[in-house]
């Protein structure tokens, strides 16, 4: 007869039924605006709209997410509650410089670089890995190095001309003020 079949319960197009308490709705409403991470805010928004009885298609349209993302968010809530929505599984890529962090740190403890360009050259020489100065600064911060703020020490004024100039200044400018 028909060439179609009903969606399975694992399908993202199947309606997922969730019952919300008034306290959960209030918490979702607060967190959708006040949580520090925007992805968690969006998840809270999705669940809040779901608690208000909106259909999945409309939630996807309002939150600008796909149906599989909606289903994943709803499953996260079913498995972990509101705290489950706050978990972020993204780990990012690890830097290839991390394998050399101990040797680089030991070298820089003995020979601190003056600039990030100098650190960049030394790291390239030690590891063979070239990175931009911005990435070098971030790497050095991660391994515990910090930039050193240096100034200059003024030279001594023991020249006879300078001593004479200071004495003249003291007699003509400073002593008349103290009288």
Structure overview:
The chain has 179 residues and is mostly helical. Among the domains are: 22-85; 96-142, no CATH class. It is 59% helix and 0% strand. It has 8 helices and no strands. It has helices at 22-34, 38-51, 56-63, 67-85, 101-110, 116-127, 133-142, 160-178. Helix 1 packs antiparallel against helix 2 (38-51), helix 2 (38-51) packs across helix 4 (67-85) and helix 6 (116-127) crosses helix 7 (133-142). The protein is elongated, with a radius of gyration of 33 Å. The N and C termini lie far apart (117 Å). Residues 1-13 have low confidence and may be disordered.
Short description:
By secondary structure, the protein is mainly alpha-helical. It has helices at about 20-35, 40-50, 55-65, 65-85, 100-110, 115-125, 135-140, 160-179.
Give the mean pLDDT. Answer: 85
**How much β-strand is present in the residues?**
under 5%
Number-wise, the strands total: 0
**What does the largest sheet look like?**
none
Structural classification: mainly alpha
Could you list the spans in which at least 5 consecutive residues all have pLDDT below 50? 1-13
Count of individual helical segments: 8
- The gross shape turns out to be elongated
Reading the helices and strands in chain order gives HHHHHHHH
Percent of residues in helices:
55-70%
> Which assembly state applies to the chains in this document?
single chain
Distance between the termini: 117 Å
Question: Radius of gyration from the CA trace?
Answer: 33 Å
